[in-house]
Amino acid sequence: MYQLLQQKGIESYCPLNKVMRRWSDPNKVVEEPLFKSYVFVHLREEDKTRVRMTNGVVNFVYWLDKPAIVRDREIEMIRKFLNEYEFVQSTPINIVPRSKVRIQRGILMNREATVQKIVNKKVEIVIESIGYSLTAFVDKSNLSVV
To answer: Which residue from 9, 34, 44, 97 has the highest number of Cβ atoms inside 10 Å of its Cβ?
Structure first.
């Protein structure tokens, strides 16, 4: 898929990680995508359809119900990280009950809270920083994992 995007002139990046695999007797170091099934693309709005029409592309990645946007400096950080380290592991972040989260927007911005339960796109959180337990339902997109 990465090569097909490159052939279409779409600026793309597939971070590769060195991993140890055993296919026959000796172990062998091979490169695999760091994020399975992900290719980062830098595109204009008018390129979205060309990307979607590329063989192997299922959709764009969404994070908390919004299109995921990865900044150039974050891509550069991934490049530098992979140049410095081998055998890296990536683990997805999930908001689950008892997770510690930070509120991103609103009157409670930058406060930490504990997730009680998740109901569709809303998360019931408890904020304990003032000596009381305040419970609120907050949109998932307004939280980041601590």
So the answer is: 34
